[in-house]
Each structure stands twice: as C-alpha cells, then as structure tokens.
What we know:
Blueprint: H1 27-53, H2 63-89, H3 94-107, H4 112-116, H5 118-132, E1 152-154, E2 161-163
Antiparallel strand pairs: 1-2
Amino acid sequence: MVYPASPVGHQLPPPLPGPPIPAERPDTPFVLSVLGGVFIALAGAVEIYDGAVAPFAPFGNGGVDYVLFGTLGCGLGVLIIILGSLLLSRPERRSEIGILITVLSVISVVSFFGGFVIGLVLGVLGGVFAIAWRPRPFAPAWPGAGWQVPAHRVCLHCGRFLSFDMRVCPYCATPVG
C-alpha cells in the first residue's frame, strides 16, 4: 500500500485503526424530552377522545373544553418532541432549547396534568439536563499531546527537525526562516 507523500518528501504514516470518534451529543436530555413529549401528546389525544365521545363532561361546556385542552396538549407534546430532536442536531443551542422544553412541559399541565404527570416530569428533567449538559473538554490521544507548543520546526529542504533558534539547517545548510 502506498501512502501519499508529504511536502518534504517523506511518506505519511497509515491512518490509525478503529472507528472514527463519534461527536459528543446530549443523548440523555434528548431521550427524556422525547419521552416526555410522547406522554404529553398521548394525554392530549386521550383528552380529545374524551371530549368527542363524552360531550356531557362534568366541567365547563362539556366536550368543547376537553377538545381544546387536548389539542393544546397534543401541540405541546409535538413541539417538545421536535425540540428534543433539535438537541441532537444543534447541541450548541442546548441552553435555549432546554429552557423552551422546560417551559412547554410546565405549560402542559392544562392537558391531563402534563401527560399523566409522567410527561411533565420527564419533560422538565430533559429540559434541565439539556441546560446543564456540557461537552467533555478535548482530551489528547496520549499524555502531553496537544497541550504543548512544539519546541522545534521542520526544514523544508531536507525535512529534519530543527529548534527555533537555528537560522541555518545544520544537515543541508539551507537558510531557515
């Protein structure tokens, strides 16, 4: 196998084996928010069904109130699911999305107490976890790698390592920077 040549004539080493390192994503806030949104939307659907089937409900105008609050619950549940999905594609906006998820989950109390209370709790937890989530800091592949400024440079003529204080390459006598 032939590897591409570097600008100074040396061959580059083969790529490291193994799968590529996956990008870090807020998976736990995503799962909690989507599950909370599903419970809230499901509670809204149950409330719509109750309003349509039982028009003589015990409070208000009967079925009309149930259908309106159920529609609100379904809409809030779908919005929370969409925002939870946005956490994966836009992790840099996690704080704003987390605040929206938390607020919408609290507002969902009007629809069967926030998705049978389970949706409310899961949505609020997902939103708070999204606000608190931080990606891990960059970790070098080995101790000391990536954290230090290199103490040498490369001669562009012969490809040997030189210290910064050298003005002429001692190997090929080429002037350096």
